[in-house]
Write a structure and sequence with these properties.
The complex is a heterotrimer. Chain B is built from four helices and eight strands; from the N terminus they run ααββββββββαα. Chain B is of the alpha+beta class. Chain C is globular and about 75 Å long. The N and C termini of chain C lie far apart (about 90 Å). In chain C, about 45% of the residues are buried. The chains are: A alpha/beta, B alpha+beta, C alpha+beta. Chains in contact: A-B, A-C. At the A-C interface, loops of A face strand 6, strand 7, strand 13, strand 14 and strand 15 of C.
Chain lengths: ~280, ~150, ~400
């Protein structure tokens, strides 16, 4: 796991190795530490605070392969001041990194089970490391199924990875879009619609769910309808974060601090809260 | 040619249906095939059938003048397609096109409507099951409408 | 008496005149003395140059949305209750530089800002505020991460408490189990005793540091009569609380009341002005500001006080999770009285009453909780429509 506790205040300098455009408004940034020494290990599901000198700091999911120890990979949408500025950075620029913070997906704990990953939109980013980890220890798990839904074909993330995963004989990958033009040969429909027929055994399955909150609410209902226990479903919550270490108070979700009690939560622990408005 | 009864009896959609009702359905059923690219039905046409998709892929489309055909839902093996045969004035609301070669069991809606009028129990059993499908589609449609992955 | 003669819980009486000697002793140690003083018509905590800065003769009248300080002409130094400010502004400052950064050829240099090492001496900490400090200790140094700024200031702070002789109009420390008597968490605890012919302080030793301090001031072991006088004063305060908050099963009550109609009622009054969070001695929320100089070569990160009542406190792409005032008031109250317990093992409220006094529209959380308790929501969403039942009218 993590070798030492991350500093709560001072970021470590990292250099940008690559900025890659994923879709129109989503990009991936790959970072290597300036001082060369490690500090790149993380648990799938965790996030870092990325600091852009003089502009600001934002939480970004780590979206890369946890077995690839030499760099940190993050994927985010360019929707605010910091992310828009970050998108324009070039190789060689610097970012400060604080982290990794938060709880991760229970990848080690679910050995022996079937695993179904349900990703909606950007939700695929924090789930991708989990899938990499599951694949790297494939023999420990039963069936592995990825259900991924996004808005349209142009919004599909990590196309190359999806193609590699689909090509494997020991993974099931289903991709769907909310809407498409007739040139699209794939599935059209909400990702929750894929759950009833997905090939997993509900009596021995753990589900990892990530996406917009509404999507997670409906996905969880479909999973429960199929027979999963609430204690076998994990969700990833998102809230405003300023400090990521439980001091600023912004990320509270009921009694939970999303930065340290989450972002990954076991569903039975947040069941009631997910249906309360504006909490 | 073997009867379609065992195939229909096993379909989840018809689970729990009494033997005599199943026999009525079988009487209105036939095996059909749509080659890739063919339309199962077009918007505005009279709706006289519904389908159990056995194999292949069907996409529901609505054509709009500037944007061309917009795909709204994909149906595959195991899905039930079509309830417009139950709703007056019985016409299809959108196009359905076979994306790849598709085999299905077609049920004659006109024939079934008559049978339902005389055997109200059969009517209730079918309506119960269709309501489930409509509910799921409605939910899914609402989620799609919300454009969850947008801003 | 020497420090070696004194043990924890010992009582020493010092005269009013000797309080100046205590101040001098603290200053000799290099302490910055902060305590109650009067500014613009209210008692606040600020720097004290001498005992002359203490609010001698001042008392206060507090109610919902109302504060009046009054000069009585009496010699008592501590006849007021909770002032406008609390001690958190010294331990958890409203603005604090966290780090500075500058561009270099090979990247960015980032350094944590130097910690302030000045020793603080808190003069006159009320029991409720003592608990508030303990609560902040737990939040900022007792969990997974540690706030180094808070820890340094806290460790260096000397705490001289004052036992309350009267309860304020909005006080309810008795309900929260935080007063009016302080039993621990202080170096020294004073009780002011004034009657025929004497003005003195019965001082309880709370730590070795306190024993050391008091041993450097002329004093004598307190007599049984003095101790009794002191106890009686505090007992009177316990009986005259301005408010009561029923904390029976309060966590379960609030956890089951997320959709209670009372939130709508209070939301119609609440201005989301954030006064309550500013005056509350335990509210700790903050935000972060990144600033840079015009040349863009150096940058700083500052931490500033923030409030869950602000519109963008809970902003994530697309909008704020809590955009309505209703949701924000609910967040504050449920956090303070319920979720805080799950987070930190105690209530977040110490019963000081400041939020009631300083709310411009006089919202009283004891009243809100009572309303939620008394009127649990109806089980059915609809009521029978009387008018159309009969067909006409």
């Amino acid at each position: 796991m993590i070798d030492k506790a991350p500093d709560p205040i001072v970021p470590r300098p990292f250099r940008i190795q690559r900025v890659r455009r994923e879709t129109e408004d989503t990009f991936t940034v790959e970072l290597v530490p300036v001082d060369g020494a490690g500090g790149t290990s993380f648990v799938p599901g965790q996030f870092n605070m990325l600091y852009l000198f003089g502009v600001g700091e934002i939480p970004v999911s780590i979206s890369g392969d946890p077995n690839e120890g030499s760099k940190l990979v993050h994927t985010t949408r360019a929707v605010g001041t910091v992310t828009k500025a970050m998108q324009r950075l070039k190789r060689g620029s610097f970012l400060g990194v604080r982290g990794p913070y938060g709880t991760g997906w229970p990848v080690e704990e679910v050995a022996g089970s079937d695993v179904v990953l349900v990703a909606g939109g950007m939700g695929l980013a924090p789930l991708r490391p989990a899938l990499f980890r599951l694949i790297s220890r494939r023999e420990r798990y039963g069936r592995i199924v990825l259900l991924y839904g996004t808005r349209s074909p142009a919004d599909i993330l990590f196309q190359k990875d999806l193609e590699h995963w689909r090509a494997r004989f020991d993974l099931e990958v289903y991709v769907t879009v909310d809407r498409a033009m007739s040139s699209w040969r794939g599935n059209v429909g909400v990702v929750t619609g894929l759950i009833p027929k997905a090939p997993f055994d509900p009596s021995q399955t753990t589900a990892l769910v990530c996406g917009p909150e509404v999507m997670m609410r409906f996905a969880v209902q479909e999973l429960v309808r199929r027979g999963l226990n609430p204690s076998d479903i994990y969700v990833s919550m998102e809230r405003n974060m300023k400090c990521a270490v439980g001091f600023c108070g912004h990320c509270q979700f009921g009694p939970h601090f999303v930065c340290k009690d989450g972002p990954v939560f076991r569903y039975d622990g947040v069941k009631e809260l997910m249906w309360v408005r504006e909490v | 040619m073997e009867t379609l009864e065992p195939i229909l009896a096993q379909h989840p959609f018809l689970e729990g249906m009494e033997r005599r009702h199943l026999e009525l359905l079988v009487g209105c059923a036939s095996n059909v095939r749509f080659d890739a690219g063919k339309f199962l039905f077009r918007e505005g046409e009279e709706a006289n059938h519904f389908y159990f998709v056995r194999h292949g892929r069907v996409v529901l489309e609505i054509f709009s003048p500037q944007r061309g055909p917009i795909e709204i839902e994909t149906l595959t093996e195991g899905d039930v397609l079509g309830w417009s045969w139950l709703v007056p004035p019985y016409y299809w609301r959108f196009d359905a096109r076979a994306v790849e070669m598709t085999r299905a069991i077609a049920l004659d809606g006109k024939c079934l409507r008559n049978k339902c009028e005389t055997d109200k129990d059969l009517g209730y059993e079918l309506l119960k099951r269709f309501v489930n499908i409509v509910d799921r589609r409605l939910q899914a449609t609402r989620l799609q409408l919300m454009d969850l992955y947008g801003d | 008496m020497t420090a070696a003669d004194l043990v924890i819980n010992d009582r020493v009486t010092i005269d009013r005149a000797h309080l100046d000697l205590m101040f001098a002793a603290l200053r000799e140690e290099g302490c910055r003395l902060v305590g109650p003083t009067v500014r613009t018509g209210a008692v606040v905590y600020d720097d004290l140059a001498s005992t002359a800065d203490l609010p001698a003769g001042w008392t206060d009248h507090q109610g919902a949305g109302s504060y009046r300080a009054e000069q009585t002409g009496q010699p008592a130094l501590f006849e007021f209750t909770a002032g406008q400010t609390s001690w958190k502004r010294f331990l958890h400052p409203p603005a604090l530089r966290l780090l500075s950064a500058r561009r270099a050829e090979d990247g960015i240099r980032m350094d944590g800002a130097a910690q302030e090492s000045m020793k603080l001496a808190f003069i006159g900490v009320r029991p409720c505020d003592l608990h508030a400090i303990t609560i902040l200790d737990r939040v900022l140094t007792g969990d997974r991460f540690l706030d180094p700024n808070y820890r340094v200031r806290r460790r260096n702070a000397i705490v001289i408490a004052i036992q309350c002789g009267r309860a304020g109009g909005t006080c309810f420390c008795a309900s929260m189990g935080t007063g009016p008597k302080a039993t621990s968490g202080f170096d020294l605890a004073l009780t002011e005793v004034i009657d025929a012919g004497r003005h003195c302080f019965v001082t309880e030793v709370g730590s070795d540091r306190g024993a050391d301090l008091i041993s450097r001031i002329p004093g004598r072991r307190s007599s049984a009569d003095e101790i009794q006088c002191a106890e009686e004063r505090v007992a009177r305060a316990a009986e005259s609380m301005g408010r009561v908050l029923d904390v029976t099963n309060i966590k379960e009550l609030l956890y089951h009341s997320y959709e209670h109609p009372r939130w709508d009622t209070v939301a119609r009054r609440c201005l989301c002005c954030a006064n309550c969070t500013m005056v509350c001695p335990t509210c700790f929320c903050s935000t972060v500001e990144d600033v840079t100089d015009i040349a863009g070569d150096t940058a700083e990160r500052w931490r500033k006080w923030d409030s869950c009542f602000t519109a963008d406190f809970s902003y994530i792409h697309g909008g704020s999770v809590r955009s309505s005032g209703r949701a924000r008031y609910r967040q504050w109250l449920v956090h303070k009285l319920a979720t805080w317990i799950d987070q930190f093992g105690s209530s977040g409220c110490v019963g000081c009453g400041r939020c009631i006094t300083w709310c411009p529209v006089g919202i009283d959380l004891t009243e809100e909780v009572q309303a939620i308790r008394e009127h649990q929501s109806p089980t059915s969403a609809f009521v029978i429509d009387e008018e159309t039942e009969d067909g006409d009218s």
